[in-house]
Amino acid sequence: MGVSTTAPEKGIRLVTVDFPPVNALPVHGWYELADAVRTAGRDPGARCVVLAAEGRGFNAGVDIKELRRDPGHDALIGANRGCYEAFAAVYECEVPVVAAVQGHCLGGGIGLVGNADVLVASEDAVFGLPELDRGALGAATHLARLVPQHLMRALYYTSRTATARELLAHGSVWRVVHRSELLDAAMELAREIARKDGTLIRLAKAAINGIDPVDVRRSYRFEQGFTFEAGLSGVAARIRDSFGEEPGKGRERS
């Protein structure tokens, strides 16, 4: 359990997240993930990083139970900072990051894949921000990198999800494959990237980040300020305490 890094092939580093049962990460888990991605990207032998997860879903965001157990704001501050570090690590990774997404990709998962370079998804993958149902805000910055502006707003306000096929139609997913083929498909793409010159691929990553129209680090940090305001006002705790009690939340769009 936790975050592990392997080198399955020359030029490729595989970072795998495993926090059963649903990959809802505690504060330390976000920092572990950030450290793993940064270390993998700094490896002079790396040309591409594949970000994957064990279990039935890619990522379910922060560990709500950890926030509930904290009578103060330390856990909220920790989650905010941990998510910020993990999202930034993916974005700033010195080599391209390919995210292999299966099952649910929610909340913090959107922050990770929204900052990745390329997404490969399984047929059962769904993407969304159920933040309003969990007493939080944030990662609209990253959802806006996956879907058009008005769809992002609709998904955000309703807490609904979009399927991998829908994201494929929007051009934000590279391939949609059967779940059993997911890692192979991600590795196939990573292998193609890893054949490029190591110095040039790093320059390419820096150049592409440099022409981004939105500073994802600053815009996400701005969003986090409203998350903390919701925490101070008490509304976040009230919604978190009822989380899971109302059926039918966060369903796929029909």
Outline the structure in words.
With 254 residues, the protein is of the alpha/beta class. The strands form 2 sheets. Strands 1-2-3-4-6-9 form a 6-stranded mixed β-sheet, with helices on both faces. A 3-stranded mixed β-sheet has the order 5-7-8. The C terminus is likely disordered. The N and C termini lie far apart (35 Å).
Gyration radius over CA? 17 Å
> Count of DSSP helices?
11
Task: Give a quick account of the main beta sheet: strands, pairing sense, barrel closure.
Answer: 6 strands, mixed
- The residue-averaged pLDDT reads 93
Which range best describes the helical content: under 10%, 10-25%, 25-40%, 40-55%, 55-70% or over 70%?
40-55%
Protein name: Enoyl-CoA hydratase family protein
Pfam family, one: ECH_1
Keywords: Lipid metabolism, Lyase
Family: Belongs to the enoyl-CoA hydratase/isomerase family.
Features:
Enoyl-CoA hydratase family protein; alpha/beta; six-stranded mixed sheet; three-stranded mixed sheet; single chain; globular; lipid metabolism; lyase; 11 helices; 47% helix; 254 residues; Enoyl-CoA_hydra/iso
Concise structural overview:
The chain is α/β, with parallel strands linked by helices and 254 residues long. The chain is 47% helix and 17% strand.
Topology:
Blueprint: E1 2-9, E2 12-18, H1 27-42, E3 48-53, H2 64-69, H3 74-92, E4 97-101, E5 104-106, H4 108-115, E6 118-122, E7 126-128, H5 140-143, H6 149-158, E8 161-163, H7 164-169, E9 175-177, H8 182-194, H9 198-210, H10 216-233, H11 235-241
Parallel strand pairs: 2-3, 3-4, 4-6, 5-7, 6-9
Antiparallel strand pairs: 1-2, 7-8
Helix pairs in contact: 1-3, 3-4, 3-10
